[in-house]
Amino acid sequence: MSLLTDAKVVKQIKLAPHYYRLILAAPATTRAAGPGQFLHVRCGETLEPLLRRPLSIHAVNRERGELAHLYRVAGRGTALLAKKKRGDTINILGPLGRGYTMPSAPERFAVVAGGIGIAPLYFLLQETGARGQSALVFWGASTKEQFFSPAEPFWNADGTGGKYPSIVQEICAQGHQIILATDDGSAGFHGTVTDLFERYLNNPSGREEILSRYREAVTTSGLIKTDGEAGAVCSCSPGAMLNFNQNPESETFARVYGCGPGVMLKELCRIIGTHKIPGEISLEERMGCGVGACLSCACKTRDEEKDGFRYSRVCLEGPVFPAGEVLWD
Amino acid sequence: MTEIYSGRTAGKKPDLSVNIGKLRMKNPVTTASGTFGFGPEYAPYLDLNRLGAIVVKGTTLQPRPGNPTPRLVETPAGILNSIGLQNPGVDCLIGEYLPYLAQYDLPVIVNISGDTVEDYAELAGKLERAAGVAALEVNISCPNVKKGGMQFGSDPYMAAEVTRAVRGNTDKPVIVKLSPNVTSIVGVAVEVAAAGADALSMINTLLGMAIDIRRRRPLLGNIMGGLSGPAVRPVAVRAVWQVYREVDLPIIGMGGIVTAEDALEFILAGATAVAVGTANFINPRAALEVLEGIEQYLTEHQIGEIGELVGAAHRT
Predict the structure, then answer these.
(1) What is the complex's ipTM, to 2 decimals?
(2) Which end of chain A is least crowded, N or C, by CB within 10 Å?
(3) How many domains does chain A have?
(4) Which CATH superfamily groups domain B18-72+86-207+230-314?
(5) Which chain B residue's Cα is nearest to A307?
(6) What domain range includes position A49?
């Protein structure tokens, strides 16, 4: 069920220059939201800029009837959004689109995120974590600062987010394991996240070493702090949070979930295609209506019946697509 | 006009109904083709029964994949699009969407497009036999397809030929959608009227383009596209004004209508009905808000029926 409604701004948290977490009070929308879906957000009040902006749903707090976006200021629309303050009203349309298929109960799955591509995957991790399912998360960014250390509490109440020093620790606290990659080597693996992921898949006997090396990197990065340190409210020790699979050599992923820049997703699709792992990726595209009417946000998907491809609507058939379905130029 | 006829009685609701040829609409507000899909897309957000009519996505004989991406660019107070008439084809429309729309008390206007005059004739014939079609809107003005489309609309004699071909195959109201990308829109309108059109839709999008100065190449995959949104409204109002003076056919006015005030401009310029287009993307309830605003205007100004306003700006 999708709704057109006015949401109140609960909080706007600046994570880093140009990066924000926006928390909105929208109970009915929050109840209806699933991981991978998005809202079409009216950023301003005037006709300039004209269109809404599609923003993935980053997290929900169903008890409070609130949801969050994690976004980067990329143009006029998001610049207006960044000016919104507590108590302001924002018109939202959603939840929209096809989200991620939730993994079945005992499945071990992987999450591969490029930069702010963590935004919708965080919601998936939140939901799976609450069900006791755990993922191995590969998160890459250009530099360490882009893993964000929120200056303010996110949601304090109930373990669906909290006063952790970083998004990395929030993800760990949800019961997942995480290893990092940076383009500049400032944290974790020095290189792309897909490169790290491929190395992990390709070399079962080397996985233990990869995990221990980058577990170390996460611990020493300052992105995770122990009880009492820097006021962090976290019941579990970093050791427990980084409790990786004891037997990674025989580990298989039933599914891989990805989101990030196009080049990264293309590479991810190649890797999981080679390893024959089912996967789902979330695409980003400029949108008009957001509801499937205008056919602006088209992407090429496989269609054996037609000329080998057809144009699918990212807003309606996506934004999450099975990895093998998307055709890359 | 008598006192009774103009309904200047306190508390009486104004009469909003209009006629587009044989097509009777309970109110003058419809949706512009290509901005409202086939209806189900917007059904969660507004009661489709309240619209005067729906104009569905441009339909062709065969399914069309559409143009390469990117297909959309936001420009000052407007958008450029080059969708390229992506649609599932007329058989799918007849088999799936017309039955869906039959549940509503809503006249369905089908927008048709072809590569050749014969295509238009065949489409008209198929839709003449289909249930649930209230009228045809003949698209001779799409700027985003290689063959047909605007080619027909920019030549008055070709436009007339297409109109005749459709007219010959249907008894339903034939509404011809005109392109603003011509030297004289009046010239095209006159020929189309003589060829048997029952009404005119105007305007389609303005041909435009935008360039990415960083990459130094066009922003649209198809290079050029159609401009719509508030940016084009004055051009559209002007076109309606000119055609209303010279051609005695009802006009469905469109181009950048966002509010009731915008719609009233078109009506005062000579439009009998109006279509909300790009504004649907900004506000899925835009068409209903336009309708409510028109009704409120009539009530406030004690105007008994909408017809009194059509072309009124020519008479003052």
Answers:
(1) 0.92
(2) C
(3) 3
(4) Aldolase class I (3.20.20.70)
(5) B65
(6) 3-96
Contact across the interface for B281 and A294, Cβ inside 8 Å: yes
> Strands B29-31 and A308-313: what pairing?
unpaired
Quick one: pLDDT band at residue B3, thresholds 50, 70, 90? very low
| Res A231: pLDDT | 36
Residue B266 · residue B310 · CB < 8 Å: no
Chain B CB contacts of A291 below 8 Å: 37, 41-42, 284
Indicate the pairing of strand A177-182 with strand A189-190.
parallel
Q: Which of A95, A40, A97 is nearest to B281 (CA)?
A: A40
Q: Which residues of B touch A310 (CB under 8 A)?
A: 65
Q: Which chain B residue is nearest to residue A312, measuring alpha carbons?
A: B65
pLDDT, averaged across chain B: 94
Query: Structure tokens of B188?
Result: 């095209």
**A327 in contact with B at a CB cutoff of 8 Å?**
no
- Determine contact: A27 vs chain B, CB below 8 A: no
* Residue A236: per-residue pLDDT: 41
Which residues partner with A94 through β-bridges? A3
In a domain, A103, yes or no: no
Is A57 a member of any domain? yes
Domain ranges of chain B: 18-72+86-207+230-314
CA distance A103 to chain B (A): 29
Question: Do A272 and A142 share a structural domain?
Answer: yes
Q: Using CB atoms, which residue from B65, B77, B281 is nearest to A289?
A: B281
Catalytic residues of B: 142
Is the per-residue pLDDT at B239 higher than 70? yes
Residue A262 and residue A131 share a domain? yes
Domain CATH number, residue A18: 2.40.30.10
Residues A293 and A262 in one domain: no
